[in-house]
Structures are given as structure tokens and as C-alpha cells.
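User: quick one - fold this with zinc ion bound?
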Amino acid sequence: MKKAHVPGFRKAQVELEHCSTCKGKAVVQGVSYELVCIDCNGSGWVMAGSRMVLASDELVTQLSFKLQQAQREIEVLKRGPSITGPAAYYQQNNRRGAGGSNYTGD
Ligand SMILES: [Zn+2]
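Assistant: Sure. C-alpha cells for the protein plus zinc ion:
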């Protein structure tokens, strides 16, 4: 099993794709239980193109980048379609009023 290091680009985001062995699930079905997929270091992700597995330390950072990216996308989706102008302002306010439960927390 090759472990890819990214020399000189340690803080750069690496393009990732789903591991083909576990289909991105990070685990594979063993005989009676699920096993951590060794082809992707139990992450479900491999480097796009080369399909090499990232070393654990590298993986943590890359998954963090990916998670941050996903969270940004979720935030954008939560805000809904980007409408500009007074209509957008009205709709946002309206939603905030109707969806007040979002802000009460637990
Ligand atoms: Zn895998």
C-alpha cells in the first residue's frame, strides 16, 4: 500500500475522490462485521487521479478542508437561491420569522 505525501504542498487542498474499494464508505463488509478500508486509510477518500491513499496526518488536514468546503456549501444552500433585490430581503426576513425554531437551539 502506497502512502502519498504531497511534498511542498502540505497545506494545499488535494483533489479527492471516493475510494473505489469501499465506495467512499470508509469501511468494507467483512465476513461478519465491517472492516476499516485499508485502501483509503479508513477515510473513504483517495487522491483524485492517482487514487493513492493519503497518510493519516495529511488526511486529517485534507478532510478538514473538505468538511469546511461542505459546510460552506450547506450554508449557501440553507440561505436558498440567491435572489437579489428587495424580494430577497423580504423572503429572508419572512423565513427568519417562520423558521424561528432554528434559532432557539436546544
Ligand atoms: Zn476505501
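One thing worth noting: DSSP finds three helices and six strands in the chain.
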